[in-house]
C-alpha cells in the first residue's frame, strides 16, 4: 500500500465505525493514481486486489482471464478454458489450480453469460467448486463469493472475483457496485495493454524491416555481412574511396575481391564513370598489350579495325586488374609506364593518349615473395601497393555465413524457380564448415544443393552430403602424399580450389609431365591447375634449376 493510502487509512483509525464510503474513495483514488503512473496490468491489479482486501475486506481477490484473450486470438470454442492471472492472498499453487472451463462453476458461469454472480454462502451453493482454495483454509463462519464480468466491448474476456465475510456491517450491494466499477476499469486497462502489444508488434516488425534495411545498407555495394572483420575492411575501403592512388586488394581466392573493387568504385567520385574488370589470368600472353591498351587497324594479322583497349574504355572511371600476379614480366613494364605517366599507346599507334583511370588490383599471391623470386617487378609492386587492403576469409567472418547462405539460397531459388529452404540445423552445419574456398565455395554448395535436392526443407544430414569432401561427385585437388596424379582424368573438377604458387613441388610437376607425355594442358588438368598456372610453375622451376 502506498504512503498516501496508509496515511488516509490511519486517519480513519480513531473512529469506532469506519466510513465505508471514505474507504471506497481511497481505494478508487489509489487505483487511478497507479493507472496514471503505469499502464502495466500486473502492477495495477496487484495493488488493486491488495487494497480490496485491506480497505473493504474483499479477500483472496483474483482476476481470471480467458486463454484466448491472453493469446490474442478469437474465442474459438464455448468450452475453452480460463485461468487466474492476478491474485492477492492466494499462493502460487492455489493460483495454478484456478482453471475453469467456460460454464463450469460460478466463475465459468460468469464467463459464459456475462452476468454478475453472487453466492451468499459458498457452503450452501453446489455450483461453488472450492477449486483454488480449500474450504479448510477459509474462515469457519459464513463466506460469500462475488464474481463480476470483465468485458472488452460487448465480449466477456475475464472475471474479477473475491471472498467476503457475511458478518460485516457493510451492504453486499455496495461491494458489488465497487467490484463492477473496478471490473470496468480492469477491462479498459486490459484493452490498453492489448493496443500497446499490437503497437509493439508493429514496431518490432518495423524494426525488423529497418534491420534488413541496415543490412542492405551494409550490402549496398553487394557485400553481405556485418562481422567485425568485414566492417573493418569496408571502413578502410570507404576511407580511401575518394583518393586517386592505386589500391591493392589482398586475400584468399573467393573472398569477393571483385565486389570490393566495385564497392570502391561506387563509393568514389568516379561512380558515374565506367567500371572495367580484367582477369589477367584469362588473357593469353600474346594478346595482353592489345587487350589492355587497344590496337590500330593493321597492327597485326587479323586487326581489320581499330579497337579501344580496357584502359581506354575505363577513362574517367576505374579499372580492376584481377590476378595481377599472372601478368607477364614484359607487360608489367608497360603497365608501370601507364601508371606513372597517365598515358597509353595503342598497339600499332605512333602517339600517346592521355587517360584518367584509377587502378584497383587484386591478387591471392604474396607479391613480396614474387618480387624476391624475380617473378614480379619491384617498382610495379610499390606502385600498386600504395593502399593495400586485406580482405578477410570466410573463416574470419563466421558470423556472416548464415546471412550469406540465405542470400545465395534466395538468389538460386529465384533464378531456377525453386522453393527450397534450409532447416536451422542445416544452417548450423554450414556455419561449422571451414570453407577453404571462401564465399565462392559457399555459393557453389548452395547452388548445387538447391538444384539437386528433392526436398522442400534441406536437413543437416542432406546438406552434409553436399559439403566439400563428403559428396562423391566432388573432385578434390591433388595433394602430395594423399592423392596420386590421375593420368586418366578426363574432365575439370566441379569446383577448382585455389592453390597457392607453392602448392606443387618440382616432383609433382615432373610426374605430371612424364605421365602425360609432356602435354602441359593435361598435366595442369591432372593437378587441378589452369594451363597458365601450370606454365608459370613450370617456367619458375626451369629458372630455379638453371641458376
How is the topology of this model organized?
Layout: H1 3-12, H2 20-37, H3 41-56, E1 58-66, H4 67-71, E2 81-87, H5 92-97, E3 99-101, H6 105-113, E4 117-119, E5 143-152, E6 155-165, H7 172-218, H8 228-239, E7 247-250, H9 257-267, E8 275-279, H10 288-293, E9 294-295, E10 307-308, H11 310-313, E11 318-322, H12 329-341, E12 343-344, E13 353-354, E14 358-363, H13 367-372, H14 378-384, E15 387-390, H15 401-416, E16 421-422, H16 424-432, H17 438-452, E17 457-458, H18 460-466, H19 506-515, H20 520-526, H21 531-546
Parallel strand pairs: 7-14, 7-15, 8-11, 11-14, 16-17
Antiparallel strand pairs: 1-2, 1-6, 2-3, 4-5, 5-6, 9-10, 12-13
Helix pairs in contact: 1-2, 2-3, 3-7, 15-17, 16-18, 19-20, 20-21
Average pLDDT over all residues: 84
**What level of helicity do the residues show?**
40-55%
* Beta-strand proportion: 5-15%
CATH C-level class of the largest domain: Alpha Beta
Total number of β-strand segments? 17
Which stretches are poorly predicted, pLDDT < 50 over at least 5 residues?
Answer: 12-17, 471-498
How many domain regions? 4
Strand order of the largest sheet: 3-2-1-6-5-4
Span between termini:
96 Å
Q: CATH topology of the largest domain, anyone? A: Beta-Lactamase
Class inferred from helices and paired strands: alpha/beta
Shape: elongated
Indicate the CATH architecture of the largest domain: 2-Layer Sandwich
* C-alpha-based Rg, rounded: 40 Å
Q: How many separate helices?
A: 21
The CATH homologous superfamily of the largest domain is named: GAF domain
